[in-house]
Amino acid sequence: MTSAEKIRGSLEQLAAVITDEHAAAHPEAFARWGPAGRTRCLEDARFHLQYLATALDAQSVPMFLDYIGWTKVLLAKRRVGERDLIENLEILGRAVRDMPDAGAYVQTAIDELPAMTDDVPSCLDPRTPLWSVASAYLTALIRGSRRDAQQIVLNALDGGASLRDVYRQVFEPVQQEIGRLWQLNQISVAQEHFCTAATQQVMTQLYTRIFGGERRGKRAVAMCVGGELHEVGLRIITDLLELDGWQTWYLGASVPPAHAVQFCVEQQADVLLVSATLPPHLPAVAEVVRLFRERPELSRARVIVGGRAFRNAPGLWRTIGADGTAAGVDECLALLNES
Questions:
Q1: Half-sphere exposure of 182 (CA within 13 A, CB side)
Q2: Single pTM value for the model
């Protein structure tokens, strides 16, 4: 049994051990926080363990470091200091001391954490031609005005901006910026969800400008694995593929893998796009790819995987049996249109 399997098999027990030790070291704080504080500490321990197990599976220390770096920023903006995170990681290291490889990953994170930034730069690049449009669009969303946000996009299009540029320079970076603002504790979860839903609604209003063009005979099915809530990036890709003449089917998230693969067979898909933002969802991606490969009807079709989960494991797409990976919208479009 691998260390990753051991961690997953005893995840709840390990999370409880980590939480109990942390509580014993800080009885006053836990008394002040009450049951809600213990619940939150348990959740954090589960996340640490899940990401550690996934990084071990992928044999990627950078994957675990990326998660710890993200967590450091998240906690710092919520007034949880670096020392607290280091202490929690030290407890985690003791909890997995019988797993040398897991312990090594945790120790590397402890060693490198002080040098990790406690801030994240804006995702909106002032050098892009539609930066002012993206900024105004983001402001309207945060203000809670979907109507104003939609009008800003329509005005940009009427002013000569292309749909491709609106998708690439407005929707994509604004969605990334919304995630950043939540991480920095500058917007609430409710605001984040509203902004995402509003962008999806605005994109839907543009469909009359996207669909109905000349077809190229290429067919793509796109899906996010179950539980994945970061769907907009993949939807941007499918809409831009439609602009390029592809016929696409966007399935969204939580479609059972076997049903998604059967849909590919029925639609005679040339490619299946599978996205995962969170590393703990990588086993679900591997399951989709496995089922896809088992269907002889899809022997000529490709599977392309992507999303942040693959960012710190360059060769992971090969390991799970995919035909390629892409780090972003432009790279994915180039990969799909090269053949």
A1: 14
A2: 0.90
